[in-house]
Amino acid sequence: MLVTIILFGLLAAVPIPPALGPAWAEFSRAPACCLTGTKVEVGTLGFDRDQKRLDFWLRRTVTRGIKKNVVISWADTRTCAAARPLLASIRDIPVPKFAPVGTSNRSSVYIDGISFALRTYSDEGTLTAETNVDTPLASWIDSALKKLDSCWSDKLPERTR
């Protein structure tokens, strides 16, 4: 768990360019056994008057190895067909049930594995979830990373005018 906490700290260390504005969501995948991790942040580019909808930017930060090599890439909903429906599908992720120690029906306890996390807004405030493997959140994040795989570029998206 300590490795995961350190890794998330490193992933957060590279600031988002101020012109893009703040991220309103982020999701991540970080194997506990390795010094690797992927975090995707999402923010708003602006309102497209012609399409009558908001455009969004996505920033992927991948950290690898002991030297903590960081690679940043970008995508947006204007150039990545998979991004908009993927972001809308966040609403469909089942929220984990609260389970105080000793009250869970789950038979497995993971000490290792992969940490999957999501932070975003909900109808009732901010929601943060962190799970391990074999959960709906883990499945959604793995699927999301695959769907976005061909979308990433070194080019920083421009705000919608």
Q: Please, could you describe this protein's structure?
A:
The protein is an alpha+beta fold. A 6-stranded antiparallel β-sheet has the order 4-3-2-1-5-6, with helices on both faces. The longest helix is centred in the C-terminal third of the chain and has 13 residues. The radius of gyration is 16 Å and the shape is globular. The N terminus is likely disordered.
Task: List the topology elements.
Blueprint: H1 2-11, E1 23-31, E2 36-48, E3 53-64, E4 69-76, H2 83-88, E5 114-122, E6 125-131, H3 136-148
Antiparallel strand pairs: 1-2, 1-5, 2-3, 3-4, 5-6
Write a concise synopsis of the structure shown.
The chain has a domain at about 1-30 and about 75-95 and about 115-160.
Widest beta sheet: strand line-up: 4-3-2-1-5-6
* DSSP summary, beta strand count: 6
**DSSP helix fraction:** 10-25%
Largest sheet: number of strands, sense, barrel closure: 6 strands, antiparallel
Q: What share of residues are in beta strands?
A: 35-45%
What gyration radius follows from the Cα positions, in whole Å? 16 Å
What characteristics describe this protein?
disordered N terminus, globular, 161 residues, alpha+beta, 3 helices, 6-stranded antiparallel β-sheet, single chain
